């Protein structure tokens, strides 16, 4: 047992010695004056060749005879555009715009006005919607034996709910449903 006790004492003393600070502890307070700090970074700053644009004229120095005139301040020259980057950016933006123009449908909302077996009732509900809301498009579908009449192309639920409350006063069985809508028609609804 003595061998293990000695071994444990050796390991513990080694740990304590390894964790000890190398620097002597001091109690003095160090105060730094950050405003007095000065370092010359001129050697690390990048330097650029002057732009090959139109030469700029230097302002004339004020004459010592007339000290009231102020010297003109030199305005920095206009930076040279990186035309190759602009062309590449325009190309990418045109590609994105063409892709966006080709998208016709998006997820949105429609109001289901009628569900039933009677075509005459579906047509009368469609006429009622056209009379009261001429800006809304009506979509009548037939899946045997059921007719469904949905109106509107709403991209935002808030717009759909505004029309839904008005249609609900006319047709109490109306329901708000998510559907695929035409983007161009949804932009016409106000």
Describe the structure.
By secondary structure, this protein is of the alpha+beta class. 38% of the residues lie in helices and 18% in strands. It contains 5 helices and 4 strands; from the N terminus they run ααβαββαβα. The chain has helices spanning 2-19, 83-102, 119-132, 157-170, 183-188, and strands at residues 105-116, 138-143, 146-154, 175-182. It has a 4-stranded antiparallel sheet with strand order 2-3-1-4. A hairpin with a 2-residue loop joins β2 (138-143) and β3 (146-154). The protein is elongated and about 100 Å long. The mean pLDDT is 80.
Helix and strand arrangement:
Elements: H1 2-19, H2 83-102, E1 105-116, H3 119-132, E2 138-143, E3 146-154, H4 157-170, E4 175-182, H5 183-188
Shape descriptor = elongated
Decide which structural class fits the backbone. alpha+beta
Question: How many strands?
Answer: 4
Largest sheet properties: 4 strands, antiparallel
Main sheet: strand order: 2-3-1-4
Percent of residues in helices comes to 25-40%
Residue runs with pLDDT of under 50 for 5 or more positions: none
> Helix and strand string, N-terminal first?
HHEHEEHEH
| Radius of gyration over C-alpha positions, nearest whole angstrom | 40 Å
Please, what is the average pLDDT? 80
Task: Measure the end-to-end span.
Answer: 91 Å
**Strand coverage percent:** 15-25%
Assembly type of the chains comes to: single chain
Number of helices: 5
């Amino acid at each position: 047992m003595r061998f293990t006790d000695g071994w444990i004492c050796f390991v513990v003393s080694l740990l304590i010695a390894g964790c000890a600070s190398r620097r002597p502890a001091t109690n003095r307070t160090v105060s730094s004056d950050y405003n007095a700090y000065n370092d010359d970074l001129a050697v690390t700053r990048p330097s650029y060749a002057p732009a090959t644009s139109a030469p700029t004229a230097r302002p004339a120095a004020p004459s010592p005879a007339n000290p009231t005139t102020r010297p003109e301040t030199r305005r920095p020259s206009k930076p040279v555009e990186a035309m190759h980057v602009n062309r590449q950016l325009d190309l990418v933006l045109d590609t994105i715009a063409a892709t966006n123009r080709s998208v016709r449908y998006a997820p949105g909302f429609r109001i289901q006005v009628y569900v039933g077996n009677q075509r005459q009732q579906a047509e009368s509900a469609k006429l009622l919607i056209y009379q009261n809301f001429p800006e809304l498009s009506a979509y009548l579908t037939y899946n045997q034996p059921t007719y469904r009449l949905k109106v509107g192309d709403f991209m935002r639920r808030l717009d759909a709910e505004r029309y839904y409350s008005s249609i609900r006063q006319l047709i109490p069985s109306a329901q708000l449903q998510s559907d695929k809508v035409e983007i161009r028609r949804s932009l016409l609804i106000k």
